[in-house]
Structure formats: structure tokens, C-alpha cells
Amino acid sequence: CCHYSSEIFKEPIKELMRKGGGEIADEKWFSNLSTKGNTGAASIFIMLEELMYSGKLKTGDKILCMVPESGRFVTSFMQLTVEGSAEGETKSYPLRKIEAPELIVEKTETSEWLIRQLAQIWIDFETELLKVPIITKIHEGKISIEEYKLLLKDLRQQVIDGSQWISRAASNIDIELFELRSAFIKHTATEHKDY
């Protein structure tokens, strides 16, 4: 797969690959520029999806992906290997011991009580979560694609809303707790990148 924004760049790319000793035969090139146009930053993912469903791939094939940055200062590569069908193959994930998250707090009677309460809530939550049928299927390696898609249906909105809520909360934290405010903002950025 090679992303280029115009056919005008195809020959120079091929020429540079020849000069670098990495020539690839024409029949092994895959581009959807002529059928989809320049789809921008998403183009490599759109191409990979099309290639995956094209019927051209077989187990063991190597896919070299090349994405030149618009200013031609940076070029990214990734190599993928085609795996066989996952049908019939299941991998189970053993249940791990549920432990309270590690928290470092001031040693006061109130904070220690609060930490015990929060730790128990966390342990109860994880214990109950492991009893949810779809989570059980995940751990047993028996979840179907349809069930997985259903599970993820609202993930994007949850992540978007969650990062906004965390940002709002961060803006209300006193300056005396600046480190905590920074931790909230950092977590917001992580949440935003999750999707």
C-alpha cells in the first residue's frame, strides 16, 4: 500500500525505490487513488481495508505501507504480515487477581477511611464486572464479532463526553492542588487519543 496524493508522484516514488534497491513489481502495488481520490490522513487505513477485502491477500503475504508526509520531510513505513483466518481459533484470557489501585495519600484518619471505601468500591466493581456475560465471553475467547461491535457501539461518544467532563472538572480544581489539576488534564488528553 502506498499513499500518494496525485499520480504525478507515483513515478518519482518508484524511481527513488529503484535507486535505493527496494524496487517493487507493478503488480504488487496497491493504491486506491484512482477510485477514491485523495482521502487525506485516513487514506492508508481506507487502502488497507480495501486491500483486506480485495481477495488478493493470502496467509504469509507481507504488506509494506508507505505514507509520505505532505511536505516530503517525513515518510512513514509499516510492514504487516497477513495471518490466517481466526475462525475456530480462540484465546482465553485468565482472570487476574482483583487488587485495589495504588494510591499515595496523606496519612490522616479521614483520607485513610476514604481510601478504604474507594478501594472496596473498586474491588466490588471489578468483581461484578467479571460476572457480566459479555465480559465472561471475552475472557473465555468466545465473543463474536457482532457482540464486540455492539460492545463498542457507544465507545466513541463515551470517550468524547468523558474527556470533556474531566476537562470541566480540572478547570474547577483549586490552584493549591495544581498537580491534581495537571493529572486531570493529562488524563483528558489520553482519553481523547483513545479513540
From TrEMBL:
Q: Boundaries of each Beta-ketoacyl-[acyl-carrier-protein] synthase III C-terminal domain copy?
A: 23-66
Indicate whether Repeat appears among the record's keywords.
no
Q: What keyword terms does UniProt attach to this protein?
A: Transferase
Q: Which GO terms describe its molecular function?
A: acyltransferase activity
Report any Pfam family annotated for this entry: ACP_syn_III_C
- The name this protein carries in UniProt is 3-oxoacyl-ACP synthase
